[in-house]
Every structure is written in C-alpha cells, then in structure tokens.
Amino acid sequence: MPKVDVNLPLDDVAALVDFGDDELEMARYKQCGTARALAMHNRGPITYGPDGALSTDILDAYWREGFYVFENVVGAEERRDIEVDVAELLERAPIAKDASVDKHGRPALGSDCKGRSVRMTRPLSDPLGGTDANHGRHPVKMAEPSAPDEAPEWVMQLLLGTLQHSDACLRLYGHPELLNVAAAVNGPDFTPFNEGLWIKQPRLGSSVAWHQDGWTWWDKPELDAGTHGFNFMMQLYGCDAANGLWVVPGSHARGKLDISDLASESGSDRLVDAVPLICSPGDVAIVNRQAVHGSFANTSDNIRVSVHFGFHRRKSVYGITSGGIHNPVSHYDDAYILRRSRMLMYAIDARQQRFPDETPFEYGPMADAKDAFRWTPAARADIRDYNLQDIGI
Hints:
Elements: H1 10-16, H2 21-39, E1 43-44, H3 56-65, E2 67-70, H4 76-91, E3 118-121, H5 133-136, E4 155-160, H6 167-173, H7 176-186, E5 191-200, E6 208-211, E7 230-235, E8 246-247, H8 259-266, E9 275-276, E10 284-288, E11 293-295, E12 304-312, H9 314-317, E13 321-322, E14 330-331, H10 334-354, H11 377-382
Parallel strand pairs: 1-2
Antiparallel strand pairs: 2-10, 3-4, 4-5, 5-12, 6-11, 7-10, 7-12, 8-9, 8-11, 13-14
Helix pairs in contact: 4-6, 6-10
C-alpha cells in the first residue's frame, strides 16, 4: 500500500494514487480519527498543582477519556540508550516462531528463559482476532493486507519480561515522573503488572485485534473505571493513525462491552468511535486497560517501537488467585507482591546511577528496603525470569 499523508485533504489523497474504494475509506478513517484525537483535551506535559500533586486537569481528562498523552517525557539521551538496546534485541530475535537461534546462529533472545518472552507473527497478520486466545477477548478478526513479496516469514512483534533484557528499559521503568503518575492514579501502594516491548515494523507489523484487558473483576460489584489498572506506552519514534494504537474514548467506564456488536454497528473492523494515539518521540501515553483498544496492521513506512509497563491498585490484586495469560496462575499475597515489586527498586537505583542529578522516586511499600536492591552485576541473576511473577488480573 502506498504511503499517504493522513493530514492531506481527501481529494488530494485520491489524486496522489489510484486507491481502491476500501483503501480510500481507510485513509478517510485514519484522517478523521487523527483530527478527532488532536481535538481532544487529553494531552500535554506532566504538570503538578500548588500542593505538588499531579494536576487535577490531567486526572480529570484521564478518567473521562480513559487515556492521556504525556508530551516530551523522555529526552533524546535516554531515547538513544533505548534505541541501542532495541537494535541489539532485534538482532537477537529468533529466525522463526519457536526457533532457538537468531539469524547469526547464536542462541536467540529469550531462548534461555522459562517465562514468556518473544512473540513472532506472520507479517501483516492478525494472530489473535476471532480465536479463543487470552480468554477469547479478541472476538473480531482484523483485516489482513497482503504482505510484500520480499517479506520474511516471521517478524518479532512483542518481547515480554523486557527489564531483564534491556538496562535502558529497566531505567525507564524507574522514571520518577511516571511513577508519580502511577501513584496519583492507583495510590501510593500501587503494584506492578507486566512489561513489554511492542514493535510494529514498517510494512510488516501485525495487528492486535480490538479487546479490553482484564478478566478478573468484570462481573464483580466492586468494579469501577480503574479496577484493572493501566499501561504506560513510551513511543521511541512516535506513532500515528497508521502504526499506532487506537482507543475508544470513555469505554473504560462502561464495563465489559460486546466488541462483536461494536464491529457490527461500525460495519467493519474500523470502530467508528475509536481514535489513534498521536505521539512524538519521547511521548508517553497512559491507557486504561479496561478501554477498548487495538491496532491495525502497519502498512506504512514508519516503525513503531513502544516500551510498555503497567501498574495496578494493590486492592485489585491482593488476595486474588489469578494469571494464565501473563503469568502462571498464582495467589497474590504480600510476599508475592513484594517479590515482584523488587523490580521497581532495582529500576529506581539503576536510573539513579545513570541520571544522578534526578530526584529519585521513593516507593513507599519498600522504602525501608532500598539498600537491599542496588543495581549491581549480581542483581542480574536475581531478575532472571522475573516475569514468571507478573501480576495479571
């Protein structure tokens, strides 16, 4: 599919290239979605009120829409660190699904891990839509464009347990302003969820079918708009309507929705109320896990690299027995939660070593134990397969 500037008037778009009707309609959908996204009042820098608390305007917008784009959070120096790590991770990707070696014949990324690590997909495919995967939460099959003739058979879409594979991602995990946001949204005793590196390669990246995350609390009377937590998504190179995530504003507060009905009402996989995340390099989106969200196959010329990490309210996970998607089924007691939270402590210390002029975040639940979690060579052994203790609900 030719590259088209979604900001061009549609008459100019049509004049540039001989679209089929469906491609022109997709260009129109992306253009309209972009305009609606940029007209929303849910983007800007991380700001604080006179009392030092996160701005109420930010919180109000997040709880109203279910997502917010924080602008200019991660500077060029830190992005370069992450870029170097991502390039190395891609070099070490398996040559195929379930392969144990990379293209150089070395042990592949994640091949020595017990926990879930690399997800490989076929180019421009939808591996989840219309299947029973992930508790059947992806009921609608997304369009699958034809892959280029020169496309490889498999591409890397997702790396889980990212913090054990990338020091730069570990340091980002300890970002004090983002952790301040986490505390403002989920309370000072917030807990980890999981971490991932999503890669949408140009003209190859697979779609992620529309879904709502979470499965534990949907039918419980305690459910509210924030029960299943949120994800941060740092955009290394930025993202747009062609390669980015789309979200249905306000859907996080409407309970469990029938996504098949939403698609039927829309007449296709292009949900009419959805808008794309429009981000520049270094922007970080916070997206409520209960919001309906998904992404289309990346037929554009632009890569998307998103560094994801999520957090829960402690009261949503404490005492729960859950898992099965992001981690083995486990009981989340005090010991389990504290053990998983050590990753925050390592991240905060690692970040302080790299950026000593920053004021580090203080994670209250483990503040008295910070001397026990210094980021040293010995600590690497302690975090091997840490994502077997992810906290999925």
